[in-house]
Structures are given as structure tokens and as C-alpha cells.
Write a structure and sequence with these properties.
Blueprint (H helix, E strand, L loop, with lengths): L5 H11 L4 H41 L5 H25 L2
Helix pairs in contact: 1-2, 2-3
């Protein structure tokens, strides 16, 4: 991917010929924290997506299932999938 590694930042700091090494380290740590937070959010969204899939299947298998509830859950599942796709595409750029 387009992720910076510590080695990349270390090389950039050396080539910078300045005393900004600490700034580079802070930028690396910030990037790492944001990436970890985003990863956690994506995992949470994926879990919600799977849970909705199970709920939809259970509701559809139930006699006298509620079509409006199934539709609502499918719409929510699609919103979550769109959010996952959007976040994953943003992290690749």
C-alpha cells in the first residue's frame, strides 16, 4: 500500500538535513494511531454487517416474517457496506 514505514521516515529525516527528526517521528506516530483507529472502526463495521446478515436470514426463515423489518435491515446493511467500501478506498490513497 501507500503506507509510510519507520525506515521511510528515518531516511526522509536524514535527507532533510535538518533537526526535524522529532517532527517526522510525531507524524509517523500520528499516522500509526489514525491507521489503528480506522482499522478498529472497519472491524466494528464488518461485525455489524455480519450480524445484520444473520438477523436478515433469521427473519426470512421465520414464518410470518416482517417484510418491512427485512427491508430496513437490508438498507442498514447496504449503508454499512457502502461505508466500509468508502473507508477502505480512502485508506488506499
Amino acid at each position: 500500500g501507500n503506507y509510510l514505514t519507520f525506515a521511510d521516515l528515518f531516511q526522509a529525516a536524514r535527507m532533510d538535513n535538518s533537526d526535524n527528526f522529532c517532527d517526522h517521528i510525531r507524524a509517523f506516530n500520528f499516522h500509526k494511531e489514525v491507521t489503528m483507529a480506522l482499522s478498529g472502526h472497519l472491524q466494528e463495521l464488518s461485525q455489524r454487517h455480519r450480524a445484520l446478515e444473520r438477523q436478515i436470514e433469521e427473519e426470512m426463515a421465520r414464518p410470518g416474517s416482517d417484510d418491512l423489518e427485512i427491508r430496513r435491515m437490508k438498507q442498514e446493511k447496504l449503508k454499512i457496506k457502502d461505508e466500509i467500501t468508502r473507508l477502505e478506498s480512502e485508506t488506499r490513497h
